[in-house]
Amino acid sequence: MAIYELPEWTALGPALILAVTALALFAFDSISPRSTNRQLLAGTAVAGSLTSLGVAVWFTVAGVGTPTADGGNGVIDPTHGFVVDQLALYFMIIVAVVTALIVVASYDYLVDHAYQAEYYSLVILAATGMSLMAAADSLVTILIALELASLPSYALVAILKDNRGSVEAGLKYFLIGSLSSAIFIYGISLVYGATGHLELAAIAEVVSGETEAGSGHDITEMGGLLGLGILMLIGGFAFKTASVPFHFWAPEAYEGAPAPISAFLSSASKAAGFVVLFRVFTEAFPLGEIGAVIGFDWTVAFIVLAIVTMTLGNFAAATQDSVKRMLAYSSIGHAGYALIGLAGLTADGGELVMGAAMMHLLVYGFMNTGAFLFVALAEHWGVGRTFEDYNGLAAQAPVACAAMAVFMFSLAGIPPFGGFFSKYFLFVGALEAATASTAMLVVAAVLVINSALSLYYYSRLVKAIWIEDPPATRDRLAQPTGLYAAIIVAAVMTIVILPGFGPVVDAALDAAGAVVG
């Protein structure tokens, strides 16, 4: 029995803190639209992100969302349309961590840019939507949270208004995002038409035959309609996670956007897309029952998506000359790795493979964010975009370049860095799932092959930075405090997370158990 019980609305505390922070930044910009007080703006955004992180960690440690002896869900009850369980809190932590790193790095990156108040407001507002996505438990709240995350992201990609590449990337991102949203909404309407419900638990009851569909018809008669709706939902989620076939916006958006925003979209936004994907397909469409209704299990679609996404992403990354585009295609490959979490589920469970995907997304939040922030540092220095432009940077900036080497080797899955353990658990989880589906043996083999391929293009960048000779005309490189701090923190976490991987494993498995168990 808890000593005190918080009001129900505080269940969404991490997301609400981000929302209040965004409103405070909007209010400051309205009162003083010409202000250039970067310390206040960045400080407010960092304080809001870290407070959200602290509350999410507190809720996790306190056991919020875990079943209790009396059948409750911890100290704080879920609110209507949202559920605050260990899965939601796990991804709220990822969003808050990445947001804090992005804001700290942006302090130096934006030193000469206009629209600083708008920039920080939009970042925190997008983070609010991503945090709400983690807790959304209805197709309606999922849609609203997704749009809250997406609309500020479109503006952030195009915020460099004097940069043609940024504006063009923002326009492409918006147009493709609008198309995917239309597909997603149509998918929701088809699922609603087949089941008569929008809440995930209610949809699962209809699919399982525990209740009748909203209009009283037999759900088996609506299998085709429901199957088409599920495929359209997968399409909408594929856009948000930069998975094939809705991946082609990512290289354009990441290359044209400010580098911190590229890090934000490829880490926090991807994590938010995956948490909704995990929740919808494990809660609303239970395996076994859904196969009897639509004629096939949706894991088949995710097996194909995982193989194609990781293969296309890695092979495309290996052919790039631009560092930023290489990292963009690399992020597509990592989306394929995370999709293994759904591909390996079975009617009897799959907690390990989904937990492994969550572990990878947490580690990925540090190593991928750090890699893009190093690109932001290079842009701050005025270094070009190609691998050759990065030649010899280690001679002038050894600390930052050592951090970049950590990010590259961790992304490739080389020990003793965090990315090794997360990929190891993905491999083990895929092999465990192969006892129920032999196709998972192919997924495991493709995972190993793609990891080996990724080492080629990651080490290519390390070679350019550390081995190649620098150009004679390069000026002295500055050491901006904010960018350096964010990069070093990300590098340290990428290293220390391996010996301390036990708590990460426990948290990820608890989060997976919240929806799989």
TrEMBL record:
GO cellular component, one term: membrane
Provenance organism: Natronolimnohabitans innermongolicus JCM 12255
Limits of the NADH:quinone oxidoreductase/Mrp antiporter transmembrane domain: 136-447
Top-rank taxon, per record: Archaea
Gene Ontology biological-process annotations: ATP synthesis coupled electron transport
Membrane topology designation: Multi-pass membrane protein
Keywords: Membrane, Transmembrane, Transmembrane helix
Primary location: membrane
HAMAP family attached to this UniProt entry: NDH1_NuoN_1
Protein's recorded name: Proton-translocating NADH-quinone oxidoreductase, chain N
Transmembrane region(s): 6-28, 40-61, 87-107, 119-136, 142-161, 173-192, 225-249, 261-281, 293-315, 327-347, 353-378, 390-414, 434-458, 483-501
Entry GO MF terms: NADH dehydrogenase (ubiquinone) activity
Compartments, as annotated in UniProt: Membrane
